[in-house]
Every structure is written in C-alpha cells, then in structure tokens.
Amino acid sequence: MIAPFDVVKITLQLQTQQRSYAFLRPTNDGMLACATRILRKEGVRGLFKGNLSAEYLYLTYGAAQFLVFDTIESALRKTSLPKRARSFIGGALAGAIATSATYPFDLLRTRFIAQETGNKVHKSILGAIKQIHAEEGVRGFYRGLWPACLQIMPYMGIVFTSYDVLASSYSWIRHSMLVGNSPVLRGLDAVQDAIIGGSAAVIGKTCVYPLDLVRKRLQVQGPQLTNFAYGAVPKYSGMANALSFIVRNEGFLALFRGLTPALIKAAPASAAVFYIYGYTRDFVLTVRPE
Questions:
Q1: Considering only CA atoms, which of 55, 60, 39 is closest in space to residue 125?
Q2: In this structure, are residues 222 and 140 in contact, taking their beta carbons and an 8 Å threshold?
Q3: Using CB atoms within 10 A of its CB, is residue 91 exposed (0-12), middle (13-18) or buried (19+)?
Q4: Mean pLDDT score across all residues of the chain
C-alpha cells in the first residue's frame, strides 16, 4: 500500500529542475503531478516499480534493526547512562548496522524506480546484481552508504528518543488528575504505540531528509548514470559535492524534494512497526515466568 509513495518520493528526489513551492496549493511539479505523470506514462504498474527489492529491504531491515537495538539497549542498562541517552545510542547504532547489512536492496530499489520504461537498464533483481557487480564491483552496491549512515544514525536516534519523550509525556498526562479519566485518552491507550511511533517518525524524517535525497542521487551514479531519471542527475564526486551542487544550482529547498510523500509513507509505516513491537513486547512480558 505504501509502495506508490516511495516511487513518487524517489522520482521527485531525482528531479533537478528549478521548481515552484506552494503551501496548500497544487503545483506542476509536486506529489500529485508526479503521480499523474507516472500513471499516464507507465500505468498503475509504474507506481510499484522496485517493489520486490523494497520488500526484501523492509523485511531484513526491520528484523535487524530491532534485534540490534534490544541487544545494545540491554547492554547499556548496565551503565550509568540515562534512559534517553541509551535510547539515542541504541537507535543510532541499530540503524547504522541494519542499513549497512541491507543497503544493496535499497540501491536496487532506487535504480529500478529511476530507470526509464522504454530503456530499462535492469530487467530483474538477479540480472541487476550481475550487471552491477560486473560493471562497478562490490563497491557499486554501496554507493551513497556514507550519507545513508549519517542519515540513519541520527534518524533512528531521534525516532527512539522522540518515542521515549512522547511516551513519557503521554504517560504523565494519562495519570494526571485533570485529564487522566478522559474517555478520549482511554480510547487512545490501545493504539498509543502506533500514534507515538508515527509522530516520532515524522520528527526524525524531517530532520535528516536532505541526506536521504543526497543518498538517492549517489545511488544512481556510475557508468549507467545517463540512463537513469532521463539523464537528469548530474555526476557528483561525493556527498559534500552533491550537497553544495544542489544548494548552489537548485536552491536550499531542493534538499526537501519529495518530503510530503516521504512523511505520508513514514508515519503509518513507523506506527505499524511500533504497534506490533509494543504488542509483542507486552505479550512476552505477560507470559514470561516470574
């Protein structure tokens, strides 16, 4: 269900022309216009490009992320660090390790989305793996990993810290004498993990989004660069060069291209993950023997 938002987001991130920005007013180069162009040129299937590699990415990344986070957070409990510091460090390290382990799937997804319908560079995941390895070597699967880690470390740290702050605030409000018995709050108890997790994702995604855009631009670099995104993406020498080039030639706000579909996708996805995580955690705690 969230795949089309990913396709639109990445398509917008790879656009390099000057664009107009409007508040609550549709533009010719915004999310809806981009989705309409994809539907017109490629049909409904165009909104699901790269979906298979994306599924592999989500499955492996989610499992690795929470496994590493719980392991690190448990180890840090033996230190004198405060809970929020443990959440930030655990989230940052979990994000970096999970990102590095699953990064080739992320690169494959971007390239499948960026390629033109009538001039496909890669026709299958296996074919893409063979071609990238032959033309670019192992390093080709990790183009843009540096900004990805720089992005994901503070992102996951911000997400888990924001979650902890929001959860503590909710708990304080829930047990306060003034509104503690509110029927609205009682109704939210069942989905508090989802609401707080979605809100934390919005905060984290907005803070680090420019690095996500640079990562996508670097992922299509290489010998096939002109065959991706209709040849619109310039050649960059690295992360710093890409950042300065974008700001200088496209403007500072260009670093936030595609933020709207990114937030629409991130909030419910994170809400679902935290809801399942919270439900599983509570279930395990109820059946754990004393």
A1: 55
A2: yes
A3: buried
A4: 83
